[in-house]
Specification:
2 strands; globular; two-stranded antiparallel ribbon; mainly alpha; 14 helices
């Protein structure tokens, strides 16, 4: 019971922080606690939540991927570039090509980490730079607009709820988080993910095919990045080569996972914690303009502070765990 309570402590603290922050923002803007706010948060921060979901699988294995933001941007231009260069091409084929590209890139990173045992930091850093270079080549450093409705649907379609237009992607995010939570908590694959993060060598000796499971974690993250790319195209209604540079999406994803209680060394964490981390970061970014803070520099400082706070909490929790043993 004590171990279970200790495992839930980061999520409890996070929930309290979210409630306090929401109360503060509501005191500054009475209309904050309305369905319209929820709809806006889902509209602008669903791609970030999807990237964090995929990152959770990777970090649980003890890995990391610095390339997810730039790969997402690359996937946007793979799909949009095909429609620009081949206007008669079926949008579904272009979307499928994006999925294929996501599996190719994430598969390369995952295979290099899992089978070649190249440090994840180095491989993903190379993938990040390579993805950015390929994006500049495909985009010719220009945005691509006038995209077909089928490509914009996921990020732009809405449904009515509580008198507001909620984005359809909110349902996709919720469903993805529920499915991922079930996979990690109830399946053999999920148990193996945790086992590898806790002790890779012991997992190998127990019969777990460690490289295959690690590769699967990166492939899952790749598919999450492809979904996020479709969402972002629909939100902006264009493919913009500055998306990853301006938003630091990979840092946001890492910050969300870490502040949600997933250990940077792997083996401990949860999807529910990632969901709370995504909500906290979205509330902060959405709430800054409400308190008249619009400078991008403050956003960067908050990102740095959240990552550092998450790392400190992780270290404290690991020390408490060792003391309890």
């Amino acid at each position: 019971m004590k171990n279970a309570a200790r495992a839930r402590l980061p999520q409890i603290c996070l929930a309290v922080i979210i409630l306090v922050l929401a109360g503060f923002l509501a005191s500054r803007q009475p209309l904050f606690l309305t369905p319209g706010t929820a709809a806006s948060i889902f509209k602008y921060y669903s791609p970030m939540a999807m990237l964090a979901l995929g990152m959770t699988f990777i970090i649980l294995t003890g890995g990391i991927d610095l390339s997810v933001g730039f790969v997402m941007m690359l996937l946007m231009f793979v799909m949009a570039g095909l429609m620009r260069d081949h206007p008669t091409l079926s949008p579904m084929l272009a979307i499928g090509a994006g999925a294929g590209a996501s599996l190719l890139v994430s598969g390369f990173v995952g295979a290099a980490v899992a089978f070649a045992r190249i440090p994840a930091f180095i491989v993903s850093l190379a993938a990040m730079v390579g993805a950015y270079g390929l994006t500049l080549i495909i985009s010719q450093n220009q945005s691509i607009s006038d995209l077909p409705d089928a490509m914009l649907w996921l990020g732009g379609a809405t449904f009515g709820l509580f008198g507001e237009d909620f984005p359809v992607m909110s349902l996709v995010v919720i469903a993805a988080y529920i499915a991922a939570s079930i996979v990690l908590a109830k399946t053999r694959f999920g148990r193996q993910i945790f086992a590898i993060g806790s002790n890779r060598e012991a997992s190998r000796l127990s019969g777990i095919r460690v490289p295959r499971i690690e590769l699967c974690a990166y492939l899952i993250s790749g598919l999450c990045g492809w979904t996020a790319a479709l969402m972002q195209i629909g939100i902006n209604r264009t493919a913009d080569p500055k998306v990853a540079l301006s938003d630091n999406l990979e840092l946001n994803a890492i910050a969300i996972v870490v502040i949600g209680g997933t250990s940077l060394t792997g083996g401990r964490g949860s999807i529910s914690g990632t969901a709370l981390g995504a909500l906290l970061l979205a509330l902060i970014f959405y709430g800054l303009p409400l308190i008249n803070i619009n400078e991008p520099s403050y956003k960067k400082l908050i990102q740095a502070g959240i990552i550092l706070l998450g790392a400190v909490l992780d270290a404290v929790q690991r020390r408490i765990g060792k003391t309890a043993q």
